[in-house]
Design brief:
Blueprint lengths: L10 H6 L7 E4 L2 E4 L5 H18 L5 E5 L3 E3 L2 E3 L3 E5 L21 E5 L6 H13 L4 E6 L4 E6 L3 E6 L16 H6 L5
Parallel strand pairs: 7-8
Antiparallel strand pairs: 1-2, 3-6, 4-5, 6-7, 8-9, 9-10
């Protein structure tokens, strides 16, 4: 039985490949294509971006970006939501938002899809934490829980009426139940 082996490529070679739909990421010298977002995923992602940007953009505190490629420390990831503090958002010489973000996000939010492995996504958040990301969330719609990753790789589980940790300096109050309540029509 023959096993097909994917040739090892460099980060630079990966970044020169055409973009895929959905996006592919480069982690541990491996190309991993993200799953196509479905209803729960898209709903939570959209509501979180609106909610975070609603309190951070007017005051120029931070900005939440959906599906933004972030390349740093040998990886190129596309978090479901990447939040950057305002002063860290890469800019062009003319003061516009840069196309390439070659730094770690300050807050990374991932929403687990039905065909994703929790350990793979958690591993991505831990890598971000090791490289300066202040807060990571891993939302699991199946059991309505959130794993939060803090500096030093500390991981905490939040459920139900638990208040979610928010990036310092952002005046936002959300519980796990509120976030997953966005999925209900009731």
């Amino acid at each position: 039985m023959a096993i097909a082996i994917q040739p090892q490529i460099t980060l630079k070679e990966f970044l020169n490949l055409p973009e895929t739909e959905p996006a592919s990421e480069f982690i541990n010298r491996e190309i991993i294509q993200k799953p196509m977002p479905q209803g729960e995923h898209s709903t939570i992602q959209g509501e979180l971006i609106i909610t975070i940007n609603g309190v951070t953009k007017p005051e120029k505190i931070a900005r939440a970006f959906p599906e933004l490629r972030c390349t740093f420390d040998g990886v190129s990831i596309v978090p479901d939501i990447a939040v950057f503090r305002w002063q860290r958002i890469p800019q062009t010489a003319s003061g516009k938002i840069a196309n390439r973000f070659e730094i770690h996000p300050d807050w990374v939010i991932e929403i687990l899809s039905p065909d994703q492995k929790l350990t793979k996504v958690l591993s991505k958040l831990l890598h971000c934490s090791r490289n300066g990301t202040e807060l990571g969330w891993l939302l699991n719609p199946e059991d309505e829980s959130v794993l939060a990753v803090f500096p030093g790789q500390r991981v905490e589980l939040y459920e139900g009426v638990d208040q979610l940790p928010i990036l310092e300096g952002i005046e936002l109050s959300l519980t796990v139940a509120q976030v997953f309540g966005w999925l209900s029509f009731a």
